[in-house]
Amino acid sequence: MAYAERVLDYYDNPRNVGTLDKSSSRVGTGLIHVPEYLEVVRIQIEVSPARHVIMDARFKTFGCGAAIAATSITTEWLKGKTIEEAAELDHMEIVEALNLPPAKIHITILVEDAVKAAINDYRHKNGMEPLKAEAEEESERDYELEEEHN
Amino acid sequence: MLKLPIYLDNNATTPCDPRVVEAMLPYFSETFGNAASRNHSFGWAAEAAVDLAREQVAALIGADPKEIIFTSGATEADNLALKGVFEMYADKGNHIITTEIEHKAILDTCKHLEKQGAEITYLKVNNEGLPDLKELEAAITAKTILVSIMYANNEIGVISPIKEISAIAKRHGVLMMSDISQAAGKVPVDVNRDGIDLAAFSAHKLYGPKGVGALYVRRKSPRVKVTAQMDGGGHERGMRSGTLNVPGIVAFGKACELCQQEMETEGKRLAVLRDKLENALLQLEQTFVNGSKTNRLPHASNISFRYVEGEALMMGFNKNLALSSGSACTSASPEPSYVLKGLGLGDDLAHSSIRFGLGRFTTEEEIDYAIQAVTETVNKLREISPLWEMFKEGADMNTIEWSRL
Questions:
Q1: Residue B211: left if φ>0, alpha if ψ -120 to 50, beta else—which one?
Q2: Which of B4, B214, B261, B333 is 20 to 30 Å apart from B145, CA to CA?
C-alpha cells in the first residue's frame, strides 16, 4: 500500500512522542484499545488550569505507520487549544489531513476517542463534569458500522 | 559495494539465475517449435529440449521423467492433484486430509471440493508447526483417498515429517500428496525415500522463471492417475492439455539441475547467514522465532518482535529491504497470518512477525545491513509503543485498564 507523503513524514519523524506524569492533576490520559482492532493509542495532555489550555500533548501508539502518523499529527493540533475546543475534534479531519485510505479510518476514530478520554480524565481529576452527553453516546459507538460506510 | 534495495523475500519468489535465462533464450526465436509437432525438425528440437528438461526436473526429486507433468505453476499442479484425485478416485471415497497451515492453493482447492461433496479434515499443528501423527492416523477412514501435507511451510519454513506421514498413508492404502514448492531445490526431496505419490512445485521458487511448474504423479506402486482439469490436445499423457511452454520448461530444467548441483553448499552457506541474522535479532528483548528451529529450511526464519506492529516495522526499512510480514493491515479488521495463528500465536505476536527468506544471491554484507536496519526500527518503534512502555514498567499486560468514554 502506498502511503501519502505526510504519513511517511510523521512515521519517519514522529512529533510529540513521549510520556507525561499521569498522576499529575494537570495531566489527562486517554488509552484506547478495542477488541475489534489491533491498535493501541495513548494520548496525554498537560493542561494549564487557569483557562484549561492544552500546553503540551504527547502520544504513544502501537499500530501501523498510519496509526503513528494519525496520533502524532493530532498531538500537534491539540497544543494551544482549550479543552473545549479540543473536544470538538472530528476524526474525519485527521483522515483528510493525512489522506488516509478507507481501511485506515477506524484508526482516526480511536485517536478521537483517545483525545476525548484524555480530556475526561483531566476533567475528572479537577472535579469537572465529563464531556457532554454526546460523548456518552459515543461510548456506544459502533466501530464496525463506521467501517461499513467506507 | 552494498547495492540497495536488498531482497530477503525468497520464499515469495526468487530471481532467475542468469544461467537459467541464458539456457532458455534460444527457445523463444530460434528453437521455437511446438513440442507436439511430430513432422518437422522444429518440433523435434523442441521435444528434445523438453525431454532433457523433464529429466532434469525428475532428477531433482528422484523421480522418473515419465512421472513429470508440466503445468503453469504449483497452484495449477495443486489443483490438478486434488481435483484430479478427487474425481479419479470417486468410487473409493471422498475424504481428504490436510493441515490448517497449507498454502492457499491447497486450502482453497479443498474448500472448492467441499462444495462438490468432499469431506476434508484440516489437521491442527502444534506450536512448532507440525501435525500430530496420531491424529493423522485417527482421521483416516474407509473413505479417505488422499493425505495432502506440504513439505515445507512458506511462512515459517518448517519441514514436515513427510516420511512418517507417508508411511501412515501407505499403511492405510491412502495416496500421499505434498506441495514441495518451498523445499524442492533447497533441501533433498526424494519421492521414493519420502513415499510421495503426488508432488507439486514451481520454477520461480528455485531460481527459474514464473509461469511454469510441475506435478509429479507416481507411475509404479501404486500407479496414480488424475482426471485432467484442462481438456484439449491430450498433452502430458492426457493429464494436462495445452501447448508446452518450451522456454519455461527448459529454464525449469536448468534451474533444477543447478539446484541439484549447488543445494548442499548453498544450504550450508545460507544456514550460517540465517543463524547469524537470527541470533543477532534475538538479542532484542521479547523476540521469538516462530515454528520449529530444528526441522526447518536453511534459508528461512520467521521472527516476532513483540509490542511492535509488523507493517509499521516494514515501513521503517522497506525502501531498502524487501521482507514480508504476517500482519496485514490493508483491511480494517486485523487478520494476521493464519499460519501463525495455527501455531497458536496470539494476535499480538502474529501481527509482530517478519518473514526472512534468504536466497542464492544473499550476501553477508546484506545480512549485516538487515540486522542493523531491523534492530534500529524495532527499537525506534518500541520507543513509540505504549505497550512496550507498560511492559518495561512491569505492568500485567492482561489486566491493562483501557479508557472508557
A1: left
A2: B214
